[in-house]
Amino acid sequence: MTLVAFSGAVQLGLILSLLALGIFIVYRILGVPDLTVEGSFAAGASVSAVLTVSGRPFMGLVAAACMGVVAGMCTAFLQTKMRVQPILAGILTMMASFSVNLYIMNGRPNIPLLREETLFTILATRFGSIQAARFVLPLVVVLISVALLGVFFHTRLGLAVRATGDNEEMCRASSINTTFTKFVGLAIGNALAALGGGLIAQYQGFADINMGFGMVVVALASLIIGEAIFGRRTMLWNIGSVVVGAVIYRIIWAWAFSFRIDPANLRAISALIVAVAISYPAIKNMCAVYKLKRNAKKRARGRYHA
Amino acid sequence: MLRLENISKTFHAGTPNQRVALCDVSLYLPKGDFVTIVGGNGAGKTTLMNAISGVFLADGGSIVLDGQDITFLPEHKRAKHIGRLFQDPMKGTAPNMTIAENLALAYKQASGGSMRVGIGKKLLAYFAEQLALLELGLEDRLKTKLGLLSGGQRQAVTLLMATICTPKLLMLDEHTAALDPATGEKVLRLTQEIIQKEKITTIMVTHNIASALELGNRTIMMDNGKVALDLSGDARKSMTVEALMTKFKLSV
User: Fold this and answer.
1) pTM for this predicted structure
2) Domain A3-261: CATH class, spelled out
3) For B62-92, how does the pLDDT look when each residue is reduced to its tens digit (9 = 90+)?
4) Closest Cα in chain B to A175
5) Residue B114: its chain A contacts at CB < 8 A?
6) Cα–Cα distance between B27 and B25 in angstroms, integer?
7) Cβ of residue A83 closer than 8 Å to a chain B Cβ
8) What are the structural domains of chain B?
9) What is the pLDDT of residues A214-264, one digit of tens each?
10) Residue ranges per domain, chain A?
11) How many helices (H) and strands (E) does chain A have?
C-alpha cells in the first residue's frame, strides 16, 4: 500500500467514524440497527454540497447535522408516538429522505464540488497543504464529537438514554420518559451520521443521492472491528474504539484495493464481516456443544468396551 | 392515600377474546397501610397493579394518589411517587450499567439538572451507606455492572432503587417468587424493614397465603376482577391459613 493510499484511508476512516459513532448510539446504546442513518448520511451530504456550491461550506456542515436531527426525530416519532416497529420506522424515514434529498439537490442525482471552495480548500490555503487540511479537519471534528459524547453519556440525561436501551421497563418504573430519551438518542445518532455525510461530500468533492446505500453495514463493521480489538469497557473507551475501528476498517479496505480486489465485492465482504462477527457467539457455542457430544460419545464407547 | 373508584379494564374488547380483567374495583388505602393481595391466576392482581402504575389507562373510574388525580397521568410521571418491584429480578435494573449509575437514575432528589455530569463523591458515599444496609457486601462494588449480580442481589438493589426516594406508594408484584427460599426470605425481611422505617403505603401481591396473612395489616383476595374478600383488624387476626386456603380454592 502506498503512503498516499494509507493516509487517504486514515482521513476517510476519521470522517466515516462519525457515521460509526451514530450507529454506535442507535445500535449499541438504544439497541436498534436503525436504517435512518443511511438517509441522514445522504441528506447531510446533499445539504452540505448545496450550501458549498452557494459559498457557505461551514453552514453546510451545521445544516447537515440539523438534517440528521430532523430525520432522527421523525423516526423517533414513528417509533414512540405512532408505535411503528423500530426497524420499520427507520426504513420508512430512510425511504422518505431519498425524495427529500433529491428535492434538496434540485432533482439532480449528484452535485460535483470539484471547483467549489470547500472547508478543505479554505484550510489548505491557511496550512499551505491540502493533505494537512484533509487530516486536521476530520480529526478536530471527531475529537470534539468524542469529547462531547463522553461527557453527555455521563450526564443524568445521558444515563437515562443508556438505560432506555438497556432496560426500558425499568426506565419507566424509574420515572424516565422513554419517549423523550429515544428522541434524544436518535437525534444525536443521526446528527453524527449526517455530519459525517456533510464532511465526506466536501472531502471527496461530490454528493450523490445513492451514497447512503449500505452505509449501516459499513458502520456496523467498523463498530465490530473496534470492539473485537479493544473490547467493551467504559463508555469513553467504547466511543474511542469505534473511531479507531472505523479507521482500521478503511485501512483494510485500502489494503484490499492494493491487491486489485474488485471494489464491487467489498460490500459483500463488509456484510460477511458483520454477519460473522455478530454470529460469533452462536458459532462458538455450536462448536462447544459438538465437542461435548463427541467427548460424551467417546466415554460411552470406552465404558462399553471395558 | 390511595383511592380507587370504580376501576374497570377489559382486554380485547369487542373480539371473541374479550376478557374482563377488572370489574368496578373500588379500594381505599389509608396512609401507611400495608396490603397483601392474593388470588388465582387471572384474578386481576397484576392488572390492578398495572392500572395503578399507569402501564395502561383504565377503561373507567378514577385513581387518586395523595390528593392528586393520577387517572390520566403517563406511567413515567406516576413513577415519581410510585416505587415498583417486579417478579423478574432482571426487570428492575439496567444490566449494562453500574450499581452507582442505576442508583443515580433512581435518585431523583439529587441536585442539579439533567445535564449535570457524573456522580459526586458525596452521592457515592450515600449510595455505599444505603447499600451497606442490605448487608450483601455491595457497598464496595459500586462500579460493578448490575448484570453480573445474582437474582437476589439484583432484586435487593431494585428494592433500594424503588425506595431510595421514599415513594408515596410501593407496589411489590411477587417480588420474591423467582428467588430461592433463603434469598427470598432475606429480601422480604429487607422489604419489611424499609417499609416499617419509612411507613410507606404498600401493596404486595403474593401467592404465599401464609405470608399474605403474616405481613402487613390487611389482606385482599381478588377473584374474577373483583375484590372478593377484604380482611383487616380482628377478622384478619382470626383468619387461619387453612380457612383462607379453602376460600381460595373455592374461588379458583
Assistant:
1) 0.91
2) mainly alpha
3) 999 999 999 999 999 999 999 999 999 999 9
4) B76
5) 155-157, 160
6) 7
7) no
8) 2-110+117-251 (3.40.50.300)
9) 899 989 989 988 998 898 888 999 999 999 999 999 998 888 778 877 777
10) 3-261, 265-306
11) 12, 2
